[in-house]
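quick one, 405 residues, struct below
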Amino acid sequence: MLALLYEISIEMGSTLEIDELVYKIAAAVKSKINYRIFSIFLLDERQGVLYPKFVIRSNEPENQKIVLPLGKGLIGTAAMQNEPLRIGDVTKDSRYLAVHSETRSELVVPLTSKGKVVGIIDLESTELNYFTEDHQRFLMTLASRIASALVNAELYARVSANERRMDREMKIAKEIQHQLMPDDPPSIPPLTMAILFKPVAELGGDLYDWIPFDDGRLAIVIGDVTGKGAPAALYGALSSGIIRTRAARKYPPGQMLELVNKTLYERPIETQFVALTYSIYDPKLRTITLANSGLPYPLLVRAGESRFLDVGGIPLGLFPESRYQEIELQLQAGDVLVLYSDGVIESRNDSGEDFGLKRFADVVRANHEKSAEEIVKAVTSSLAHFIGGMRPQDDRTMIVAKMGS
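---
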């Protein structure tokens, strides 16, 4: 019998799918006991009832819906008392509930895990006095293994269901985030723009936006929320919504950041804040006015020379009265202005080395005569080559603005 128990344990351990598992259990028991009906009932502690998880009758699954309260019938009694029942003639036992008319004898064994009843294994036969002490010992020996396997399978099923639910919710959230993000950047000749947006997770904490004004100007927004995934994406959506609401008033960039900062500070979410650059481009004057709250300094390439614009500030949502400086830039033909999140320059290779500001500026400078879209592709290619097989650890977002003639 030990060899058989070992084989059964190995067989039960080969799957966590509960439907497949109970079939394996039924087949294993059948190899030792020629039952007519095999049932597994699981205990719902909160409801105080046992419900059928699996019933097989004459080698065919049966859809049985009977639910048994604890203490009712042979199955409910065995579960409540945590004791096996071996009944030679069920018709003479007042506790018996006639579910299958052909049943004459029955063997009921509690399934326990960590000292608690989790269910029942029930065998029925059409023969009187069919089940023996040997059958009972075998089933009791097997019961703890069956209980453990069922508990693990139930846990696996719940975890799998939660993962499927989370996957569905994540897909919906990703679609919502995608819908909230703007379309391709607008073209305001002679200024053209291109975007790189690469979240490291299904949902990204980086954000970007373009907001046209009725006077022909354009607000350009790029931001980076602390953290990654759903919390960062939600905080980013909140920040974007606040900016969109305020943008209709056409506040200058510095004042806009102060207003958004105050609003976020008054609606605190633990450990969340956002670094953001807010810019306004005026196509009539060919000027761009910028304010920055914690993103890396914008990069300007002019006449083949690169420099970082000294405009910074405290991330939004940390302090109530933060102030933000502005700079105004007169764009010239051929100028390339790059706004970007720190995920671009902090991308690391397998040696732990950052891509860095110098390498970033060198790539943009080397490609400054190309279009905005080609510059984005050049940076993307250089990043991929630099990090090799390493997985990025942060979202990467970059807006390239190129001034034509």
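DSSP finds nine helices and 17 strands in the chain.
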